[in-house]
Design brief:
Blueprint: H1 5-16, H2 26-43, H3 45-50, H4 65-84, H5 92-114, H6 117-120, H7 123-137, H8 144-168, H9 174-186, H10 188-194, H11 204-231, H12 243-253, H13 260-279, H14 301-310, H15 312-321, E1 334-338, E2 351-353, E3 364-368, H16 378-385, H17 388-394, H18 399-406, H19 412-416, H20 420-436, H21 445-468, H22 474-483, H23 489-501, H24 508-527, H25 533-542, H26 548-556, H27 560-566
Parallel strand pairs: 1-3
Antiparallel strand pairs: 2-3
Helix pairs in contact: 1-2, 2-5, 4-5, 5-12, 7-8, 7-9, 8-11, 9-11, 13-21, 17-20, 20-21, 20-24, 21-22, 21-23, 21-24, 22-23, 24-26
Length: 567
């Protein structure tokens, strides 16, 4: 798998421009950031396709270790330059942009250099294959023929990618390998069914080439899974990064004014609170979704998806009637779709796709698990009984609305920022906000669901902190999700696998929600008689997906939390 000569020259050109003097000004910083985003988008073509940028749709990422190390070096050198910049005489907006760009580089540097996924995580390569095709299917951004030809080119590169994976994986982790095997063996429908919907405009020769490339790619994926399976007994067990690295991640990457001890305490406090609030329901069983209580159980997948999507309008009308948030005119349609099998191992509850950063299409999607009215899966049971709490989280006022607004920011550095703590914190805050503002009746199934979702997101904090600092092993994490979080074993194992695979993602919900509520109280006191909740929401999400320490700086002209993170 090689870059073409034009692409190598393109990357070299971007790399040669990556220099910044300590005396540089805001314009130089922003110019350098723009060059970095161009370089990154070319270096990671599949991620760029997923973000709605389709300049590199025929390519895969170059994962030869020489290219990997070259990219890491570029990021590390650039991070050192940005840290060294003297911004003492810059205005607040310019200083905010420097801090944000520094944290973006710290993220890329940390997750590459410290976690070394190319050598340890077999999922990396399966995900590259899956997303390379999935990103071409999500939207009709071009003709079926154009996308099918791009898919063919990517499929033809998959065998070489997976051969490179075998060379790179010198320290594979058994847990990650198990998840990769499951995804590689369970995702054939993406290639054999979904992909082939693009083939209608191909000539006979083009269709044969697509089919040949598809079959070779699938064969390589299955052989890769077999190769991993045969070596599982030799692989290392999952091991934590340790507290020092975890604290660096919290502070320098996520710009949180907390360390692991602070987060563990926050998670325990919130877990105790929501577990007790469940018990205070007149019928505590309402916290565990039960389709038998639903007025109507959909007869099949199509009716289930349609009913799910229809309930979003109720939330939108409630928000507008109560002036709780402004919905811009450019917001598109939010659609519910079935979760592809390839994503089930680490996303048992489904996942959300907002319009991408570069997307011209404002449509968003929420992918939910395959419909089964007798399923034990929490998310399926919840969606049958009352889908509104999850819809509010994933759609409006949650991810879909917030990320759509973030994509329209004029400032490129802020538009490029994707702070998961704010993104998930806002969506989770919205769940309880809708409850407390009166969308759901007291002691209803929806209220019970909100409390259970809050309870197990609190358990997520404990799992993430204790797993990655080395206090718990994987089975302890699963047990905590079941006992303290109230999840079934299927959901608990998926949650624990997600926590192990994506350090800090699971802390985002409760941590971000807590920070937002802290800002809300401060905002209310400042506004006094002029306070309106909807005005707070509008201002909060107008900043984009920024760390809440930075939002506090912008909203209150107070950089205390940022300084606490970076000191």
């Amino acid at each position: 798998m090689q870059f073409t000569q034009p692409n190598r020259l393109l990357l070299a050109a971007f790399t040669s421009l990556m220099s910044l003097q300590a005396s540089a000004g805001p314009d130089e910083l922003r110019g350098l950031a723009h060059q970095y985003y161009e370089w990154r988008d070319a270096a990671y073509p599949v991620a760029t396709s997923s973000a709605g940028g389709h300049r590199f749709d025929s390519r895969l990422t170059d994962y030869r270790m020489s290219a990997v190390l070259e990219r890491r070096q570029h990021v590390s050198e650039l991070l050192a330059q940005v840290i060294a910049v003297d911004d003492e005489n810059w205005d607040k907006d310019a200083r905010v942009d420097r801090v944000l760009f520094q944290s973006q580089l710290a993220y890329a540097d940390f997750f590459g250099r410290e976690l070394n996924p190319e050598a340890s995580d077999p999922q990396l390569y399966v995900n590259e294959c899956t997303n390379s095709i999935f990103s071409l299917l999500q939207k009709d951004y071009a003709s079926s023929r154009t996308r099918a030809i791009a898919a063919t080119a990517r499929l033809e590169k998959i065998p070489a990618l997976l051969a490179t994976a075998r060379t790179n994986l010198t320290q594979p982790v058994k847990l990650y390998a198990s998840l990769a095997i499951e995804a590689a063996r369970g995702g054939d429908d993406l290639y054999t069914v979904s992909l082939m919907t693009l083939a209608d405009q191909l000539s006979a020769a083009e269709r044969r080439r697509l089919a040949k490339a598809r079959d070779a790619a699938l064969r390589s994926l299955h052989e890769y899974a077999d190769w991993l399976d045969a070596r599982r007994g030799e692989m290392t067990d999952w091991h934590p990064m340790g507290e020092a690295k975890y604290n660096y991640l919290l502070k320098h990457v996520l710009l949180l004014p907390f360390d692991a001890h602070d987060l563990a305490h926050l998670g325990e406090v919130e877990l105790v609170r929501y577990r007790a609030l469940e018990a205070m329901l007149r019928n505590p069983k309402l916290a565990s979704p039960d389709p038998a209580r639903a007025a109507h159980v959909p007869k099949d997948q199509a009716e289930f998806l349609a009913a799910y999507q229809a309930r979003l309008q109720e939330i939108v009308e409630f928000l507008r009637a109560n002036r709780l948030v402004t919905i811009p005119s450019y917001i598109g349609e939010f659609q519910i779709r079935q979760l592809p099998e390839a994503f089930k191992p680490t996303s048992p509850g489904g996942f959300m796709n907002a319009p991408g950063l570069y997307d011209n299409d404002p449509t968003g999607f929420y992918y939910i698990p395959t419909y089964n009215p007798t399923s034990g899966n929490f998310y399926i049971r919840a969606a049958i009984e009352d889908p509104r709490p999850i819809l509010g989280h994933e759609g409006i006022p949650g991810h879909f609305l917030q990320l759509s607004i973030a994509n329209h920011l004029a400032d490129e550095i802020r538009r490029q920022n994707a702070d998961t703590v704010f993104i998930e914190g806002w969506a989770m805050y919205g769940e309880e906000m809708l409850l407390r503002e009166g969308l759901y009746p007291d002691n209803s199934a929806a209220e019970g669901q909100v409390l259970r979702l809050s309870r197990y997101r609190s358990a997520r904090v404990n799992v993430d902190v204790n797993l990655h600092t080395g206090r718990w092993d994987f089975e302890q994490a699963v047990g905590h999700f079941m006992e303290a979080g109230g999840l079934d074993r299927e959901a608990a194992e998926g949650e624990a696998a997600g926590a192990a695979s994506s350090p800090s993602q699971k802390i985002s919900y409760i941590t971000g929600k807590w920070q937002i509520m802290r800002l809300l109280g401060r905002y209310r006191d400042r506004q006094g008689a002029d306070f309106r909740l909807g005005a707070f929401h509008d201002q909060l999400i107008s900043y984009g997906s920024l760390p809440l320490s930075v939002i506090e700086w912008l909203m209150f002209d107070d950089d205390t939390s940022v300084r606490a993170a970076l000191k």
